[in-house]
Amino acid sequence: MKPRVLIVVTHLLGVGHLARAALIARALMEAGSSVRLASGGSPSATVDLSGIDVVQLPPVHCVGADFKTLRSKDGEVADESYLATRRDLLLEAYAGLKPDVVVTELFPFGRRQLAAEFLALLEAARATSPRPAILCSIRDILQPPSKPSRAAQTLERLGRFYDGILVHADESVITLDASWPVDKALARRLEYTGFIADRRRAKALRLDAANGGEIVVSGGGSAASLRLFDAALEASERDRRRWHILVGHGIDENRYGELVAKAPANASVERARRDFPSLLSVADVSVSQAGYNTVTDILATGARAVLVPFEDGGEKEQRMRAEHLATQGRAIVVRENALASSTLLSALDEVMSLPQPGSAATIMLDGAGVAAKKIAAVSARALAVSGAWEKLHLALEEIANAGETLAVWWRDDDVVAPSPALDRLLRLSKLFEAPVALAAIPLLATEALADRLAAEPRVDIIVHGLAHRNHSPQGQLSSELGIGQPLLDRMAALYGAQARLRRLFGPKVVPMLAPPWNRIGDDLVERLHEVGFAGLSTFKRRRAREAAPGVLQVNTHIDPVFWRGRGGLRDEAAMLEDLAVLARETVARAPQDREPIGLLTHHLEHDPWVWRFVEELLGFLAAQRAVRFTRPAEFLAEQMLRA
């Protein structure tokens, strides 16, 4: 089934954002998808939206480099009422389409001024069942975050709502970390599509005999390029070559008329044309700013380029893109504050002395087509996840209707000290009334941790080895309590480890061992009862109710961290389907043989996507009639009564 896709884009100055979104929409439509494009910027004469289902929101724009002040269609400051109307129309567009995929262009990396409407849309999507896949679409270079907190907020919003980020760039040319802090969590969610170039525009019109061998000057779709046009006209008066100056439709008619009147005989001035790549393909040099779309056309045509990046208001995006291409020998850069007819002519001489740029065949330029395929793939994954949630729900409903209950417990490993991640974990425990067994590392646990947990009634402390150090011989799987040390030494160390935790945490400690890496020597398991342990927890289904005489085995079964991959979240659908099977198999056993199902987390290792899954799973389980949360203090007490 081809997905229904909602693309949401707002351009504030130039039209590059809208142009990219339109090309992705067309690629999706050509692949058979239904597409609705919600545009929040001013309509553009140079972006072809024909045949696309467009919802035009009340437009906003910016004046100059003042991106903080949004202005309405009439040029007034956009007030709360105006923005609320935009938000309501956006939500109507979402509800009317019922999309399988939502794509937000730039947000949450940018467009913070419009966060209210984007977040309203994302919350609506998150509340929909089945939930649509959500993707962010960004260009190659972003305006770097002004402070670390903004990058952190962006990552948190991505983790809470998004399934992935489409980066419209070729990794061989530039990667996102050139402009934005990319940690492991974000890197795992990036999908590079290649640059989005409109190949059809290069063939749209046949070139006139007068075209070719020109210096083509362009400035995007806004008035930000007026300084470049003025400098180009002055340079053309001192030069014998033919100049072709393309003026964006964002420049008013009076100013456009002044440029036309000022042009010497060897320079022609006209409005921007949709066949711009055709002009570049036969030009001697392209002179332009360094916006994404223009640079992509330069890369696609292999044109020699002089780039004058827009830098007003502290903007860094275009300068970074221009300088990156210059280091690869693809352009000469003239800084905006040094722009004059003389510097422009010098740059032209310099660029003409450089080798012709490499063939465009080596650069990924089908970004729209690749994006369409990735959008279809993420839609399929989202459907699989929704189906898996439904399978789990049906399994638990069957259990409840049969009058049975399913015991579930939660273990979290490697706790040693207070941290924001631990606070987040404890908030989830409180929110869903789900007790959590914290596997504390005895030799590293701190007094501060004991103080933090003193007033937490839903917390049990279990013993997590000794110091979480690997003692296995080289070449063997990691283990702290395996065969790497003498048995009596391990027994004595474990006895002391539990005693230390009891001094720190008092009655919160239960006599249960969770060995690091979930591995322990069989010889030590047989002697655990002798050193004060009544329970053992590793991973996967247990083979017997007791690991050894007097030692109850209660394992964990679902771990959302993809340890064998690059970290991050494991396949959600697979985990949920495994949990549904495990639930049915558990209640099929005799009551005395049923093992509580265990969720295993590692709060210090969670990225935002893992946190989202854990929150969703706990919330889901808490709402099920068949589920009863249990804890080591409870099931070990039952074991002792039986003994």
In the CATH scheme, the class of the largest domain would be: Alpha Beta
Low-confidence stretches: 203-209
Tell me, rounded to a whole number, the average pLDDT.
92
- Fraction in helix: 25-40%
Shape estimate: elongated
With helices defined by DSSP (H or I, 4 residues minimum), what is the helix count?
19
Classify the secondary structure makeup into a structural class. Answer: alpha/beta
Number of domains: 3
Largest sheet: 9 strands, mixed
Please state the CA-atom Rg, rounded to the nearest Å.
Answer: 31 Å
Amount of beta strand? 15-25%
Distance between the termini: 57 Å
Tally of extended strands?
24
- CATH homologous superfamily name of the largest domain? Glycoside hydrolase/deacetylase
CATH architecture descriptor text of the largest domain: Alpha-Beta Barrel
What name does CATH use for the topology of the largest domain? TIM Barrel
Structure characterization notes:
The protein is of the alpha/beta class and 643 residues long. It folds into three domains: 198 residues, Glycogen Phosphorylase B (Rossmann fold, 3-Layer(aba) Sandwich); 162 residues, Glycogen Phosphorylase B (Rossmann fold, 3-Layer(aba) Sandwich), CATH 3.40.50.2000; 241 residues, TIM Barrel. Strands 16, 17, 18, 19, 20, 21, 22, 23 and 24 form a nine-stranded mixed sheet that branches. Strands 3-2-1-6-7-8-9 form a seven-stranded parallel sheet, with helices on both faces. Strands 12-11-10-13-14-15 form a six-stranded parallel sheet, with helices on both faces. Strand 1, helix 1 and strand 2 form a beta-alpha-beta unit. The longest helix has 35 residues. The protein is elongated. The protein starts with a strand and ends with a helix. About 1% of the residues have low confidence.
